[in-house]
Amino acid sequence: MYTPHTSRDIEAMLRVIGVGSLDDLVRVPDAVALRHPVEVTPQLSEIEIADRFARHAARTTAGGYTSFLGAGAYRHYVPPVVGAIAMRGEFLTSYTPYQAEVSQGYLQAIYEWQTYIALLTGLDVANASVYDGATALAEGVIMAVNATGRKGVLVSSAVHPNYRAVLRTYAEGLELAVDELPYGADGRTDLSSLEAALADQRYAAVVVQSPNFFGAVDALPAGVADTIKATKTVVIGVVAEAMSLAALAAPASWGVEICVGEAQSFGNAIAYGGPHVGFIAATTAHLRRIPGRLVGKSVDSAGKPAYVLTLQAREQHIRREKATSNICTNQAHCALCATVYLAAMGKTGLRDCAALNVARSNELRDKVAALPGFAARFAGTPTFNEVVIRVPGRAAAVLATLEERQILGGVDLGRFYPELEDCILMTATELTSSADVDRLVTALSEIPVRAAASV
Amino acid sequence: MPLPAFDTPLIFETGQDGRANCYLPSGPALDTLLPKHALRDELPLPDNSELDVVRHFTRLSQKSFGIDTVFYPLGSCTMKYNPRINDAMANIPALRDVHPFAPDHAAQGALAVMWELERALASLFGMAAFSLNPAAGAHAELAALLIAKAYFKKKGEPQRNVVIVPDTAHGTNPASAAMVGFKVLSLKSDAQGRVDPDEMRNVVGPDTAVCMMTNPNTLGLFEPRIHEVSDVVHEAGGLMYYDGANANALMGNTRPGDMGFDLMHLNLHKTFTIPHGGGGAGAGPVGVAAHLIDFLPTPVVRAFDADGNANDATGWRETADLTFALDFDRPDSIGPMRSFWSNFAHMVRALAYTYANGADGLTTVSKLAVLNANYIRASIRDVIDIPYDEINRHEFVASAQSLKRETGVRALDLGKALLDRGYHAPTVYFPLIVPECLMIEPTETESKETLDAFIADFRDIVATAKSDPEKVLETPVNTAVGRIDETRAARQPDLRWHPPAAG
């Protein structure tokens, strides 16, 4: 319990209020009184709390495995300076910076975050964050729907399956039609049916992801974005691995007008899926449709530069049912972690990190694909830090065998794409060593017989 | 508590190319790894030394308030102390680093954390089940309304598309309703600031989908006829939704489930001590009554005993003998609300807080939150208007309307004057039905001494407003900057730094 009241305090306060007891303060009608006793945990001391969590941690054994998991949540090196800054109480325990005079530091940090995201995506403006990559996509689609008045969206099937699933959840509420573009033999979005699909102008947006769910660089080829825009359809680009922005062509350079994504890779823990941090960047034309908070620079009464939450006429606390979104609380502290991370890594560190991701995943692909019975599924297509490996037998069986050897080999693609049930999505980052890759290769080299036996 | 007024250049205006920190081995040249057309031309970001980075952000932090530095009497936001043990538990590497696609057998402890918390919340708030999936309160409202929409669709009543919202409601309520295509019907509160069941009877009908309420309401007043309101909505075929923003007032005393609510959310970053972090990340579990369980977002955490039988108990219990699995196969589910399963690190924090209190502790928490709020009200009611001057719950509203008439000093100005004295301002101008509103919620973690100091400062500010109003209108002066030109910020949006033009 974290209450400082002594019984003397309580008596004195009750006297001032003019009631006899604490129970008199909280009395409710019999009709709504508790019907059953509350069954909650016992009250514990800190030592006992730590002991319980030590037991929960002991049952969470994933950390003991060599891991090649990615697929939207990435293991990257986080310099300790990120945690040291982020845990300062003025950041960690502050409220949403509505009172700008006492929030100048946090507001400036979010202004810097907005700038980092704008520079990385090549777009004009970015917001103060949204919940995560999947909800960023849903919100980006809502922007396009509001911009065009059209109630459909065309999404590449190589967009993260969880993002597409969340988009469908939101679409149910908004009554949007969600159609998909197939992926091609090279693991990139198959654009051959695009022009026909755009002909009747029923889509608010076309959504592609790069690198896509298969790790493949899937930027729209030259001219395609113009074809899309010619039908007054919005080009939405998804980035589920923000680290790629340090290396790959900026989304704006290949025609993206609204870029949505996930920045967990910048200094945030994987933490079994959250909290992570979604971002939305856009061209100026879409500025007033951006959901959530925006920090702007202005001046104070003495003419001194000052930061403040701005364009709030878009938001729910002002516009209520006419707001651009219902979002209120966002992911400010995760965005702060990302900002400190980006500042500490700098251009040089980010470039090195991105290059190491490409190099280590190339090494992973080359070594595994060289094994008899294994192959790179979309060989020849450039990738960032993930590769699709075709395995002999079912991916699920191969992964289960790897687990017996303390290896988490990647994501079974059959879980999302039935036709890829013999494929594993494997990820390598700067934290993946050659020794890790060699362990995997050794384990896999002993597998085919076993996997075949279990099919 | 004055804040420093020094300027801090943007991180983009400092640093030098080549001033890199050595966190990683050097990478190979990117153009040896990927085709040139796939690569970006330039990366216009600064290289700063680690010391300069630390100094930059430390200086920024010094220009911001947090609960760790000042008292936040911030109505509707429940800014209570954030115990450090919670962060320590969330940072245990095994829990911090587990991947969402790790197989269930390698994540049993993480799943146990989620299950225990869900069960504790269900028991505490009288729901059949909770999902930890939504990322924040507004996100949970959206999930709940999607659940309602799916429920009525399945029941063959898709015409139900009206959400009834009292005029005291949070802005997220109507905004969430709009996102599921529901129409919003605003219901006027009665003279006592309550929802009148007879008034409700006049507005419900065959198109009623959901009534969204909070109790205590945003005036801090308990709705004593809430069960009658629930009956009216249920008789009309609608569902009752509980906005959990004010849950800190009633733990262990009464439950939304017992009041007749079918759906609810909690803001764990309010009631369960997750740090607000400057506006998130939050966490907004959504709770449902038994008839709505099938519609919960995916995935759902399932527990099984040693014989493989599912354990769907609503109360908390020990978990060492249970095994857990994520269940994605839920045909009636609304689907997932976000990329992965929950804001898990926050679930660790919330469970640590639950352990630290237990049922009795949480009951005491709510009682003392109510005590603190009533103590402030009773101690300032002779100097400021209290439009509903009765026993309130965890918060209450004052009004600066008379003060403004006499002196020109508004609610906003009182808030700014409080900033100068080292307090965060109360919530002002909400709820919308009280003119010149100040909404004050002290929470239970503040001591009588802190409240007494605040009361003395508040009374002194009101006295100054009467004797020398200009002095109050000029505030704040002890902060990093003075009042800000918000019109300019909106008319000439400057939302980012731009690199200097080349050449």
What does this structure look like?
The complex is a heterodimer of chains A (455) and B (503). Chain A folds into two domains: 63-77 and 347-454, Aspartate Aminotransferase, domain 1; 80-340, Aspartate Aminotransferase, domain 2 (3-Layer(aba) Sandwich), CATH 3.40.640.10. Helix content of chain A is 37%, strand content 13%. Chain A has helices at 7-17, 22-25, 46-58, 80-86, 89-92, 104-121, 133-148, 161-174, 194-198, 224-230, 316-319, 332-369, 395-404, 434-445, 448-454, and strands at residues 66-67, 125-126, 152-156, 177-181, 205-209, 234-239, 258-262, 278-282, 295-299, 305-309, 375-376, 386-390, 407-408, 411-412, 423-427. Chain A is globular and about 80 Å long. With 503 residues, chain B is α/β, with parallel strands linked by helices. Among the domains of chain B are: 11-62, no CATH class; 360-488, Aspartate Aminotransferase, domain 1. Chain B is built from 16 helices and twelve strands. Chain B has a seven-stranded mixed sheet with strand order 1-7-6-5-4-2-3, with helices on both faces. Chain B has a three-stranded antiparallel sheet with strand order 10-12-11. In chain B, strands 8-9 form a two-stranded antiparallel sheet. In chain B, helix 6 links the parallel strand 2 and strand 3 (183-187). In chain B, helix 4 runs parallel beside helix 11, helix 7 runs parallel beside helix 8 and helix 11 packs across helix 14 (448-467). The relative contact order of chain B is 0.14. The model of chain B has no long low-confidence stretch (mean pLDDT 95). The interface between A and B is large, with 200 and 213 residues.
